[in-house]
Amino acid sequence: MHLLDLDDDVLLAVMQTLPVKLVRGDLLLVCRRLLQLASSSAALGGHVNVAFLGGAKHKAITPILEALAKLNRDRGITSVALGNCNWGTGTTKKLIKLFPALEAVDLGAAKKVAHAHGLADWSVAAIPSLRKFKWAWGFDCYEPNLLNLVRGRELLEELDLERAEGMGGASPRTGLSDALLVELGASCPQLRTLCLQGDLRFTDKGIYALLKGCPALSKLKLRTQCIFHSASSRITLSSECVDALNARGRIDCGSWPSSPALSQSLLWVSK
Fold first, then answer.
1. pTM
2. Which one of 85, 117, 186, 239 is most buried, counting C-beta atoms within 10 A?
3. What are the boundaries of each domain within the chain?
4. Quick one: how far is CA 127 from the chain centroid?
5. Given this model, what pLDDT does residue 259 score?
């Protein structure tokens, strides 16, 4: 049996098992029918991924987004994973325009996302359907702008942020406080996973607000590992707060002391 003898549904099922870089490869040159099928969100499973473009940090991100948009002819792509390219001042607006149904975004090690526009373009009004936000390069992720990203996010299920600290020891834009956890508790009732690493300054107040407002929360991972601000990054919880976490699930804090103290990490997973 030849590949072209298969019906569209079978071809789509085959394409969904292939990495995007293969779907976009020589296969598309066979005929127009395969090109049209492979350029649909169904063939891609609603997801496009260019994180495999290693060494792209000096390349402009906008041409890459425009190339991805050609795979989104039916406007059904809901998930995008990007590589380590630099972010420009208009990049988020371009992303929203090209992918209007965006529900999940993984910025990978994309640089200057906060430098360029302070996350101001990631409001719920601009991207109303966002459910998952992941970024492994959160330097200078100023908390007021991160609050703008999560505020009103009733659909948000996952927030995963690494290296969230000011760039440089003298940077005033550093530190994620209880205000973020309080906002998540107030705005994100569907939140299931929260992973934060960087200059964290959390106490009982934030944890209690998070637990109260996020009944679906099943994974909480907090790490105070920093490059520039290790002296200020700390999680300070009372034994009563630890008991409250234990009451909701199980907690693995590594060397967490039994008395109120500081910790370098906290991992909590529901039963």
1. 0.80
2. 85
3. 1-45, 46-270
4. 13
5. 41
